[in-house]
Amino acid sequence: MTESERPGGATEKTYWLDDRRNVDRLIYTLLLVGVLLFGADFYYHKHVYFPIENRFGFYAWYGFICCVSLVLIAKQLRKVLRRQEDYYGD
Amino acid sequence: MIEGFNPALILVFGSLLALLLQPGLPRQCFMLALPVLGFTQLWGLPYGSHAEIELFGLSLTTLRVDRLSFVFAVIFHIAALLTVIYAWSLRDPLQQVVSLLYPGAALGVVLAGDLVTLFVFWELAAVSSVFLIWARRTRQAYWAGLRYLMIQIGSGVLLLGGVILYSRATGAIAFDHLGFNSPGTLLIFLAFGVKAAFPLLHTWLQDSYPEATVTGTVALSAFTTKMAIYALARGYAGSDILIVIGTVMAMFPIFYAVIENDLRRVLAYSMINQLGFMVVGVGIGTELALNGAVAHAFADILFKSLLFMSMGAVLLRTGTVNGSDLGGLYKSMPFTTAFCIVGAASISAFPLFSAFVTKSLIMEAAAREGYQVAWLFLLFASAGVFHHAGIKIPYFAFFAHDRGLRCAEAPLNMLVAMGIAAALCIGIGLFPEPLYAMLPYPIDFEPYTTTHVITQLQLLVWSALAFTILMRTGIYPPELRSVNLDFDWTYRKLMPRVLREYEAAGAQAGAVFNRFVEERVTAFIATLYRHHGPEGRLARTWPTGSMVLWVAIILGSSLIFYYF
């Protein structure tokens, strides 16, 4: 961590995450881990109960699709459900 | 250890005694000692029924220790202890008393051997806990507390009605498996359902918990809903309807959690989601599933307290827990951030953290029994919980955009409480055996298999990737100041509106009626006036002479009649 000048003249520590390149590095690492885990399905025998679990990388793509649809549906829901903060007036 | 003495009473009466002590260190130390004392008492009690008393012709079993009640009693003591430590610097006697009285009542519920004792403690828990909301002393908290109290008392009334019907039908008041064989047990089921936050009965939870005090929410999150899970596991294990109810509970709150701005309310929604898993476990009803429900309740109390504690610390230091106002707090509150991440990893069931070894029992049970649809939904909900509680909470509070908030780290006592909870979350994740050994049934399950670890990591990492992509592409909905309508809209907006309209319609009908009456009365008075008024025929003054004449005529006629 280094010291940097803030507009107010006060100095404050610059954190590792303040550098956008480091955030990008984190994201690429996450992506790499994701790809490795997806590929891991080649290398072990899955003990499963349902046939769908045997699809290649099932847990990975199921998790991904669920999260994307979760957010997309929630966004639509917000249009219907959102009100001003003082809506209930108490 | 006092033979046959109920540990719940140690907390209930102890909390009242604490008031007599000098505020400050003596009272704090006494309060810290109470859960420890209670725990020692519990530990020394042999399994079986104790403290059986005769009251109004009823034979009550006020204390029953068996494998099911024991686990809950253990975790309730731990949660009570954590609450006391977390609230160490609190100087509000009301909150201090209630933060032990309420856990005491909850303990009484799980240790009750009969339905009457259960009812007494059930109501005590309801009435005492509302003060944790009112103690916030804001207008919102006052109204939220009132709504909370009405619903909680409603649950108590349902329970009482159910117990009366059940005992009249069967002549029994013992609290064992109830099933759905009489109207009484249906009412009892609904009473439990209110406190377990069944869909549509859940609104009190997300309405009131975020309005409670910093320390109050931590206490509230641990007890009420978990004693309901206990009660369901005791009375309704293996009821198929619970699988459906639990699946809905696990699913719908995650959508709300994504768009909710108040991070403590996000946690309240995620709590309903976690309760859903437990309810499914109870519904499946096999030994593995019940073990899973109980173990997950145990783990949930710890990680949910931890998350509420970290958000409480943020609220204390910054004055807000709105995602729209927070960000970058990791710089000011590094320890709180770390503890929050432990809680987030635990609720998300990361390997090495608690829910990985507890929630998987429920998932495994659902898979073994072939409930594929429920299983797929629960897997969806697992990805969802990581999304909103695992990522959203720490991300928006401590990272995201640095809003320039600079504050002090949480007070030492809060850090200690969070530290203990975090250590327990990791401890359970690393060494599940002691918890497994405590569960109601013998267990044959190995959480750390290659399949389980890899599949769970795949689910979580790809959920995280989805979050990252949505965030980077700007698709992720921003945190906005807002309220989102939930079912409580029906009694906070719809019913008052209907009542107002009814009142207006009533007023209109009243006006018509009044006008009618007024017209009739006016007409009547006018008639009277016409006949009896100054000009009226009947009110005219007649001369005395005419009266004498008429008297003379009457007398004369009577004389004539007399002679004939």
Largest sheet geometry of chain B? 2 strands, antiparallel
Structural Rg of chain A: 22 Å
Largest sheet of chain A: 2 strands, antiparallel
Please tell me how large the radius of gyration of chain B is: 33 Å
Counted by DSSP, the helix tally of chain B is 20
Instruction: Tell me, briefly, the overall form of chain A.
Output: flat
Shape of chain B: elongated
Instruction: Count structural domains of chain B.
Output: 3
Class by SSE composition of chain A: mainly alpha
Strand count of chain B: 3
Biggest sheet strand line-up of chain B: 1-2
Order of SSEs of chain A, N→C?
A: EEHHE
Strand content of chain B: under 5%
Helix content of chain A: 40-55%
Describe the protein.
The complex is a heterodimer of chains A (90) and B (564). Chain A is mainly alpha-helical. Helices cover 49% and strands 11% of the residues of chain A. In chain A, strands 1-2 form a two-stranded antiparallel ribbon. In chain A, a hairpin with a 5-residue loop joins strand 1 and strand 2 (11-14). The longest helix of chain A is centred in the last third of the chain and has 24 residues, at 58-81. The model of chain A is unreliable at 1-9 (pLDDT under 50). With 564 residues, chain B is mainly alpha-helical. Chain B folds into 3 domains: 1-203 and 215-230, no CATH class; 237-481, no CATH class; 492-563, no CATH class. Chain B is elongated, with a radius of gyration of 33 Å. The N and C termini of chain B lie far apart (117 Å). Strand 3 (82-83) of chain A pairs antiparallel with strand 3 of chain B.
